[in-house]
Amino acid sequence: MKIALLIPVYNEEEALPLFYDTLQKFSFPQKERIELHYLFVNDGSQDKTFSLLKKIAQENPLVHVISFSRNFGKEAAITAGLTAAQNYDAVIIMDVDLQDPPSLIPTFIQKWQEGFEMVYAVRTTRASDPWLKRITANYFYKFYNLLADRPMPPHAGDCRLLSRVVIKSLLQLPERERFMKGLFNWVGFKSTSVPSVRQPRQAGNTKWNYWQLWKFSLQGITAGSTLLLRLWTYVGIIIAIIAVLFACWVALKKIIYGNPVNGYASIMVTILFCSGIQLISLGIIGEYLSRIFMEAKQRPLYLIEEKINL
Ligand code: UDP
Ligand code: MG
Questions:
Q1: Contact, 275 vs 40, CB < 8 A?
Q2: From the CA of 14, which ligand is nearest?
Q3: Which residues have CB under 6 Å of ligand 1?
Q4: Which residues surround ligand 2, an ion (CB under 5 A)?
């Protein structure tokens, strides 16, 4: 049986050697029966990552490398890896920073051999994350699941095993806005979770700041649900009903009390409230529209500059 570890790497010269050594030394019960390949996707690193990968790949024919022409993002890197891994029996996606412990590998394989097509790690604690990330991640999953057509398991990352049928299914999804967690969830198949304690990053730095995480969340939510887009019909109806009631009240007041000129405050509040609502709804339409625009361009998801041992 052939299994590929799919590892996206971006500027990971510090974490990469540590990761490779740890995994080379890591032994697990099924190791004899399994041919474990490494499939690194170099996502346009500007440091020594690629030369390190080249060196490792020269020494070990089980190491395969795809190198992008620039940074295209982790989602594109995972997609490229899955495209290259269609002949494997299964793929395990892992980060290079050892935040997902290698001890997950035997557990994943065991569950897979029990018949699960997808096995994913769920973080039981996020103690290794900063408090702000913990809170925002919590709210993200709550909000996503509130809106999404298919709720996803909270705190399940990209770290997971995918069987061949799942890989093939994922590759059938043609969209360019690839929020992988949403897509993993969308394809279905018999899946199970494995609890995992996320470790602190072993070397190097996280590649995400909060602005990127915010954009990533928007990407996920707009890809997973159209509810935010459709919501405005109902907000509009409610505001229209309130407006009619208010108009009746104003008319009645005029008939009863005549027309004393005041009402500045109520007019201002109404104008500001309604224009705020309109701008929010326009903004959300913009979010979806920009994504339709990107999809419509039909550009490739990534460009490969070099392949090694592939
Ligand atoms: N990564 C990538 N391209 C990017 C950003 C990250 O391939 O544009 C890789 C990175 O090298 C690592 C994995 O994705 O192997 C997870 O990144 P990171 O550890 O920074 O994310 P975090 O664990 O902080 O969410
Ligand atoms: Mg990490």
A1: no
A2: 1
A3: 8-10, 12, 43, 71, 73-74, 77, 95-97, 99, 206-208
A4: 95, 97, 99
